Protein 1
Amino acid sequence: MRPFTYCNPTKICFGSGTAGTVGAEVAAAGMRNVLLVYGKSSIKRNGVYDAVTASLKAAGVAWTEWPGVSANPLLSQVQGGIALAREAKVDGILAVGGGSVIDASKAIAMGVPAACDVWDFYMGAAAPQAALPVAVVLTLPATGSEMNGGTVVTHDETREKRAVINPTLHPRFSILDPEVTRSVPPDYVAYSASDAISHTIESYLTRAPGFFPVQDGYAEGVVRAIMAATERILADPGDVEARGAMMWAATLAWNFLGSSGVGAWVTAAHTLEHPLSGLFDVAHGAGLAVVGPAWMVWESRRRTDRIAAFARRMMDVRIDDDAAAAAEGIARFRAWLKKIGNPVTLGECGVTPGQIPEIARHAAILAKAWGTGEEYTAEVCAEILGVFM
Amino acid sequence: MRPFTYCNPTKICFGSGTAGTVGAEVAAAGMRNVLLVYGKSSIKRNGVYDAVTASLKAAGVAWTEWPGVSANPLLSQVQGGIALAREAKVDGILAVGGGSVIDASKAIAMGVPAACDVWDFYMGAAAPQAALPVAVVLTLPATGSEMNGGTVVTHDETREKRAVINPTLHPRFSILDPEVTRSVPPDYVAYSASDAISHTIESYLTRAPGFFPVQDGYAEGVVRAIMAATERILADPGDVEARGAMMWAATLAWNFLGSSGVGAWVTAAHTLEHPLSGLFDVAHGAGLAVVGPAWMVWESRRRTDRIAAFARRMMDVRIDDDAAAAAEGIARFRAWLKKIGNPVTLGECGVTPGQIPEIARHAAILAKAWGTGEEYTAEVCAEILGVFM
């Protein structure tokens, strides 16, 4: 194992009906006047908006609403939220939504007390020193943002999709109520599974060699749990037991506990996917279902042993030869992603071969910014993106 | 899954050489004058005492020493520490040791600001409302106390061994430096493995039926990691890589993350073991190696499916019939515990058949106090304890 520090103070409140406790939790965390951030109209259709606002009212918590956050949240949405939060003098941000809403809420939370423009944090020109407290009612399990200090935002004009990871951004608490995910449609169930699996396996596949039985076992358990829960949800969308297991698995997939101690690793699939969803408004998990396996094909030339381990321990491949096992594991993974409803070619995402160079150019810039590796030139990124055209 | 809340704010600092950073971490946590709690002379022999005190000195942190905490720490040792901490007006407790030292430190931390006697907390007559901050340099991985809010203390006269679990008792930070465990001798390596595995499997074996793929995968990964690391350490005591993996696995075994969401479960093996080590000064892990499998034999009559799952997923048993698989799994587990150096009969712990009723009487009282189950009468406890006499 390699040196690490780990601290994750986010309180998790899990259970059917916990969405109705949000007012009491917000008040207990010392917030009296929050910015209520959400997305499109789904929380108004499925009753979550009513449950949350009734709970806030009952607890005597005032709120100002900032709706309309999109998938792949935009900088302009964040900047508007910051202006409104300052005007309303809120003392906290309440995110009711999935990863996009939570990420935008964290951006607003660090933007309010900041002297610089919030985009400076994403470009690495400054680091946040403080943030308003963030509380979460999770409605779509996938990104893990509900239990980590990360946020990803897209610039409106340049379409750059950038991340900040900072300890000030851990939510104070996150409410995981499986009931509120009942209405998540099958396509988004599939995208969520793809995203959460990708979070789990990137460190598993790209870490340096070594003895990591704790981390390997953790990753294997989380991936198997996501697969089992996803299959049950798609067979019966009303299976709240499976909805709950998926919610918890996706949270544990990206709270950085499983990768603690493995040393350096890279988010290669995410590096390739961010420009795709940033430029084309493809759902993030859908994009990962295409570029993740494509990257694994390319990667299996040099990290054959790790992809073979993935194949054997997560995809039940029983082949002794590493290269053959890796190839079979990728094929099974891709078949599974397709079976549950993900696109598995760029074409299915509406991308034409002529658009690959532009995605690749952005990916190469991101690879530099994130330290994914010097080998990820625009040419190499284009080669990987072309694997499953 | 069942409803739960989970919050674990303890900061983990893992890595070779991190023991030397304790002074800076203590100061960063706002402590200026600590009670330095440790056990017998081992930390003076292996250099840990020197490294810690040099680090405190360099950081300008004052300290008062409270050495001599024993395995199965005694109430009198806690009460002496409380008196000294009050006299020295310390603002925090620094535990340098294993679970016993950490547990005694937590007891002192909650005892200092308390109006009642600290034993009242253990007897359930009062609940701690506040505690001094606790910091940890872990020297023996086993109990998980370094990343949870639990403490276990034994009453000097009655020999009752009781626990308190309270959120005020989470350490502020815990330093996990694998180098300091290099000198842990083989017998204690074996006891640690037995203890940490027991922590992981009690919820796995006694939870209600349901769909728990996250928790099952977590437990299976942790147990496999402990077994792999233990075998490497015993083959080469200087294998710091394996020492580190064991340290992290034991911490994750009992930070209550893996059992979150499984609903009610009981610590049956611990219920039976506590009186054994409380009355006879048997090492806790050694006692668990005897009574754990004995309890599993008894339990396999009613929770056959769970013990069969343990057998197949952790002990690599390939038998279709549940009862036969369970029996084979227990046999393999016991053989492994023996192979690594644990006692596997009460006789090896110095207990005679005539002493079983007294242990059983205490176990039945504890079963009532902990809610282990009404079926754990003194007669039943005696029956279980007698399985491997």
Protein 2
Amino acid sequence: MKRQLLIAIMLTAALALASIAAAAEPLASWNDGQAKRAIVDFVQRVITTGGADFVPVPERIAVFDNDGTLWIERPMYVQLAFVLDRVKALAPAHPEWKDKQPFKAALEGDLKTVADGGEHALLELVMATHAGMTTDAFARLVKDWLATAQHPRFNRPYTELVYQPMLELLAYLRANGFKTYIVSGGGIEFMRPWAEKVYGIPPEQVVGSSIKTRFELRDGTPVLVRLPEINFIDDKAGKPVGIQMHIGRRPIAAFGNSDGDLQMIQWTTAGPGARFGLIVHHTDADREYAYDRQSSVGRLDKALDEAGRHGWTVVDMKQDWKRIFP
Amino acid sequence: MKRQLLIAIMLTAALALASIAAAAEPLASWNDGQAKRAIVDFVQRVITTGGADFVPVPERIAVFDNDGTLWIERPMYVQLAFVLDRVKALAPAHPEWKDKQPFKAALEGDLKTVADGGEHALLELVMATHAGMTTDAFARLVKDWLATAQHPRFNRPYTELVYQPMLELLAYLRANGFKTYIVSGGGIEFMRPWAEKVYGIPPEQVVGSSIKTRFELRDGTPVLVRLPEINFIDDKAGKPVGIQMHIGRRPIAAFGNSDGDLQMIQWTTAGPGARFGLIVHHTDADREYAYDRQSSVGRLDKALDEAGRHGWTVVDMKQDWKRIFP
């Protein structure tokens, strides 16, 4: 046992030194400003033992929207780019798609016609590309696609178009005993295959929209088959519902960027004790994109008004972030 | 920093000593027999770095059924006792229940008539007692009920009628880097209010059946309201579906006691690498109950056959457990 103890002590010393190094500059890509100060102030208050705002570790739950909060969502949601590429890949087996909307428009890259079809058209494309295979097969499709797909403007894989300041924020919260969750309108099984590697968020801490699955024995081997039927939409008023379903307790901090995150931030910040709400405002057309009240993707209108009313922190991307991407 | 380092080293030493003490007798209430040996053998194989069966910590996921696996399920599911008591508590506001089935039978404690009404009758009782309030209010109802309700035979609170050997098993797995989950046919929000205190399992590691909820602003305050509508049944073929939804990866160990756990154990043990399936066989009418193939509650028939076929471990409660309850 003596050697094990020695190893444990050495490990601890190493970890302590590492955390000292990290603590020296936990949010290196954030400019010193109101947003950074508000984050650090909140974290210090909830971790201070004996302080009025102390929160025990198990209750330090932080929830993050994904699209536009942790990674890029322009010119279109990344998952929509995946859908369009999957339609193209599957087209040879579906000759009828050449003359059938919304598939025709998807094949021609005619996003306007796809958008004009509304939710119904989008749903048709999602079901044709996301259902009919096992959960394992779908995870492989997502991983394979992300390994080669590139963003049309930045010519980099989407998994490199995550926000460096937010990666630092995730790490800073975890270093202070927080459990970090994704709570996204995007597909839960679209995010899980890469969220652990890219964000350090394991599959069980990803909440998202989903289709139904069915358990089957195929030649004696159990599989889960993805069905063309909506199970849950984790957006807007669905976000607090998804949080309760998966986490079962109210977060103390919520991070979003659009009106789709409004109810999640309301739910989070309405609890007792210290609470934190933050909105990423896309203000940087040069380094990323600038959009808010009039945008069709990631519209930030009501939530921006509510942020002012409730004292939520608003990140001005252009002012607050030294770098955007890693 | 020097003092912090010293504290860290002392903490580690203390933890190391504590784990040595615990390791001396990790499964004290288990008799030395095949079941205990199979558990220890499995755990040692998956934690041995460099071994053929080594499993990294994040993938050490273990799932446990609740009723009949972690706590008592006879003479009726504990949640059904809660339902019946709630019907009685609500009866003064529902004079019509005196002449209306299945409420009449529930009020008279006539379980046979309730059972004869089948799933539909049960569902009516559940909806009348589980819906219509906020999630916070429901959690309080559960906690208040458990604080006073007693088991009719053992005259002890239900939370004391958990299986001591299984508590030790949960602790042993966690001490070896496992994340322990409940995956139960019971209500997810019926288990969460007490699972952390009784089992050491936090709300986010509880998977169960659920009704739908709706986000509302009541006088500006956000609430989640429980609706009289089934959301998900986490039983039989639903258990692997619930596991995928909440955990997003396949467990490596599954523990159950009835045919309701069959698919969960199939799904768990069919994965690659070291896998473990275990079934608690209720064989002890003196100290608890004895039931299996013919039982209406917790029937163990197909799963017992499958256990033999696949080499899952079967616990003989009478032979394998020194004590039943704490």
